[in-house]
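Record format v2
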Amino acid sequence: AQSVTQPDIHITVSEGASLELRCNYSYGATPYLFWYVQSPGQGLQLLLKYFSGDTLVQGIKGFEAEFKRSQSSFNLRKPSVHWSDAAEYFCAVLGPGAGSYQLTFGKGTKLSVIP
Amino acid sequence: DTEVTQTPKHLVMGMTNKKSLKCEQHMGHRAMYWYKQKAKKPPELMFVYSYEKLSINESVPSRFSPECPNSSLLNLHLHALQPEDSALYLCASSQDPSGGAVNTQYFGPGTRLTVL
């Protein structure tokens, strides 16, 4: 079965600093990978996704992620963090489940931004 | 437009009440999902509807009863819930439930449920 590991539970960065959130996945075939962001009490918003092709994918809000098959990683980056980026970030992989394909989420990384 | 709407935004109910959560999408998606999310945890899949038929029931207690009246609408009927059922209930939809790009899931804002 597929799995996702987000090694960092909580990250704090200063506003304007760069950001990298780590995600490692386990999946037997070519993975379909996603990053979602969740503000407190809100739903999940899709930041970006990877299916195939270019390993550097661009998303919304200035985020990008790089797929590295050799490292089984799909890390999320942003060159300059804004205070509004403070939220919970979930990495997910799409894989087969009991009767359909399902998203398997990592446990999430909480991002705090210092003004 | 990738909007999924959910009502109500908040719901407080007693353990003997019957209530329903509603989810709607107008993107022509043929797969719809219910997730449960406890605080500081990732979402957990509860139900999947594929072309208006229930395809997954992740061993969810019978006090949760899903319904998909048409391809745009998904309901979750609640009855005799327990305090531990208090959580954020998220609805999502995707173009198709199969593996691949068509299974990009878009989430609604959620319903915050409190069971007293």
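The longest strand of chain A covers residues 87-96.
Chain A has no helices and twelve strands.
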